[in-house]
Records
---
Amino acid sequence: MSFDDQLPPKTRLLRAAAELLANSDGSPVSTRQITKLAGVTAPTLYHHFGDKEGLFDAVVSAGFEEYVAGERDFAPSGEPLEDVRRMWDNHVKFGLTQPHLYLVMFGNIRPESRPSIVADAEALLEEMLNKAAIAGQINVPPREAARSILAANVGVTLMLIAEPLEDRSIELSTMTRDSMIFAVSTDTARGAATGDSGKSSVVVAAIALNAALQASHSDQLSSSELKLFLEWLHRISSSS
Amino acid sequence: MSFDDQLPPKTRLLRAAAELLANSDGSPVSTRQITKLAGVTAPTLYHHFGDKEGLFDAVVSAGFEEYVAGERDFAPSGEPLEDVRRMWDNHVKFGLTQPHLYLVMFGNIRPESRPSIVADAEALLEEMLNKAAIAGQINVPPREAARSILAANVGVTLMLIAEPLEDRSIELSTMTRDSMIFAVSTDTARGAATGDSGKSSVVVAAIALNAALQASHSDQLSSSELKLFLEWLHRISSSS
DNA sequence: TCACTTCATATAGCGTTGCTATAGGTGCTA
DNA sequence: TAGCACCTATAGCAACGCTATATGAAGTGA
């Protein structure tokens, strides 16, 4: 019943919590279950993690590293937008294979614990979108695009998790994914030879330049000059 | 301290629960708080609602009717896609003004309580998108479009709720909204005179016809004929 | 008018939850 | 050997959701 006695109690608590969290279909997991499975008593938990939430946070950071590893572990295809698609799919896959961990990570609403993880996930996406921006493939500043795409990605994943398994169609994901990417793409990135549809090319150019500058940490301008320059670019690329 | 004694205990319980739920910043609300504020004792709660969740469900249905009322209460503008935009904005507004109610309604993950509400919200959206489909303005079957848009809408709203109030920018919402609508729109609906970008016009026509048929309950075909006919149409309009 | 059923509320308490005040054991350094 | 962190256990508190049981009120038929 109990866990490997070789391991230190802290590790056993982490593993027990992760295991129970993974096998409890959404129902809450009690500290008593955890400590019993880990083979320790309550104060040990609170000594190491301070809190039930502290323990869960620790489990989550482990899970998050797994998530990040998944997001990073494919070689860039040279097609940034294609990589964004893969990040999206990977996000959904992570949510569906580890729904409970996902819910603790993204379904959690408390304005303290959530943002750090969301911000990290956003940063990953933004990094990739930055490459797309440099290539002149997107329509919107990378940060805004990342926030927007991530929001949709989380929404879709939550909806799929909440859906009974039998009629859980992955189409919802691919369609929403492509809609979001399509909407932030420039026409050239879409492969169509049609004219501009909305954004003028100067805006796209400003976005691309902005991204390129931030990526290369150019030394051609002083830092204060650069700051102002970037602000102007941002203003241009945010204008409708 | 207590509630209006004129009202029956059931109503007082509902109001007390709603009030506490609205003013508890995400922290859980106990049955004891509720019964104390309502001026009744525990068994009364369980007599009327069976369950804590039963009481919350009752509160939610009241809140949901408010939500639906908001979604219906503007006159159709004649521009279905514009109405979809308004439904989106109304959804976000509802979530931000009643975050706790919203979280119980849409942030809840249990695969039993959630779908009914989500399905209702989906139906509202689908109804509107059906009009757009009849007008040949959308690219995708209305049901799929509704699911997709709603998922993004929920994701954005949750993300805005989770965000600290000071840097809660509504841009995220409008941008994601327009991205989703843009992606499901046909070119004519976009106002651009460019050529087809992806979908062939026969697909759009099939989608429009399908929507029109389902809306009018045409009697020109027998029900079994109609069923098969609709299936073919669906197959056409789902083809990439 | 009186017994009888039905609905609604209260008293009191069960089992479980997250958490902790306190104390004891263990291994290290002096 | 003494002292000092560090870690763990015993025991128990307050709050939680919920319920077995009892009491009151209101309507119904004889």
Note: Chain A touches chain B through 42 residues (CB under 8 Å).
---
Amino acid sequence: MWHGLEEFLPICLASPRQHGGGQNFQDAIAVWVEEAEEESKLLKRATGYLHDDLTWLALQPPAQVKEQPKFVLHEPAPPPGEKLRRLLESGAEAAAREEKLMAIWVKKLHEELVAADAPVLLKLQGSLDPDRAVLLLVGSTRTSTLKRYLTLFRQWRLWLGEVKLRLPPGRPIDLVDHLMARRDEPCGRTVPEALLKAIAWMEKVAEFPSEERATFGRLAWAAKDKLAEQLAEGAPLTKRAPRYPSYLLAQMEAVVLDNGQTVGWRIWTWAKLLKIWGSLRWSDLQAIIPAELAMVEGRLVTILRKTKTSGPTRRVKELPVVISERAFLVDYRWLETGFALLKQFAGYKRDYLLPRLGANGVLEDKLATYADAMVATAGILANCLKLPSQVLGFWTEHSERSVLPTGLSLLNVQPADKDLLGRWKPEGSDIYARSFAGRVARLQAQFAQVARAPDRYVELDEREIGHELQLWLVERARMTSDAAAVIIEPLVLQWKNAPLHQPYGLLDVPPLENNPAPVPPSVASDSDGGSEGDPATVAAKKARVHERVANYVVVELPGAKFRLRKAGRYGCWMGRRRLFRNSVDFLDS
DNA sequence: AATTCACAGGGTTATAAGCG
DNA sequence: CGCTTATAACCCTGTGAATT
């Protein structure tokens, strides 16, 4: 068996040379991959044969770990978890959770490095606390990423050991074979890429000399591209999460305002509306720190510091979130009412927004996870909004995030403006200054105005939602079309025709703020910390000003003035302070 | 000569689906 | 439910051409 494989591989290796003589590299790879596909029966059988062993191995701690104990043996007892304890004491449950997970995965990383006999281990030998040292190797990689890198790398390492009888790093040619073995399983189209990245990351961390790495050179990368292309053929299109129809938004407001309803559900429904009006992800919502959430002049404002698009390693460090006084369909007071409930019934100190919602609507003083949110969503939809049980799985935790953007794009709102909401598309232009809140309020008002109108169903193209639901029921819930139609029909009628109550609150759409009057030159040069030169050049510069787009903003804080410059034409300005007293867009040369 | 722009490609992370 | 796996969505940087 092994011999057969070893002989097979050099044949593989030879193909590109035969065909590729004077051609370009890409073609050679393509030919090679295709040929290998036909001829890879043997390899296929080998992996098939080994498959059970591999999965079995995956469940076991790697055997090699014990064979190389030189440095595991000297280890002192694991650290007492001092940091963890402090975090928990200060109410940072979410941070503590992250910390714990990180510790687990750092340990696994360490094991993996040992199993791969990584050169970097030599450097760690003197360390009293090797896990701490390994943590430094991780750098700013997040736990979820680290986790995935490790699982993928580990599959590669085990395969390499079994099929090629080699230790990492392995050769590029081995990696190509591994990729093809995965392709034959088959695997999803994003897997080859993920695998390459994971292996490249690990090789870097392990500090294998770069010429010895399996990801060295273009070979494996080119093969990856080719395979990904093959796998993408005929792959199903990706779907967007379904929207909530606007009628349900109105119902949610009623739930929040309903004194007879259980408090836990009122608070979670409030949070749902928050997600909708702020276009927030679940993780965005949960990253809100209650102590930093405030009502300012009728608007709920906060700053997100750790989200998918913000955080220490991101260009955008902090994202402002604004839910304005115009974000409502029927009664604007849902916002303050829910907020008050949250403070009253979940006022304990913590670093996440929502506590877990127990079975009968009781709030527990514990971090709610994604799974908890799914359960709560089902509860709200069934118990509070009275939706039939069969449709519960249709909406996901991402559904809230598509309500406003979809609606606004149907209303022909400029993408640049629309993108302010929850940063659906962060490349868009955005202005992190005073005008942010105003612009967002305007968008929310625009949506609300249409969603309130009698022809909302048509204007927001909500028939599409019913249509999607129909497909979903047939496909996922295995219903006949007729059975699905029976469930959907009354719902759609309601979404379409049920009248909303008389709205209570501000109904107008505030006018678009024009660029404020130009700042006097003195202010501008003031903040720049120097004069701009003699009057002639200033005038010359000014002449050119008008053809260009504003690319900085002047911000006045109580003690200082700053000029924040954009990164590029569509770059963003970022202030670290929470609220700007005063700031002005400025046309610059 | 310096900026800006568009784009590609490498790298990272959150969410959804699947499974025991 | 709790875990793993798959995948979309996102970020960052370099590059070379275009513009100022």
Note: The longest strand of chain A covers residues 299-304.
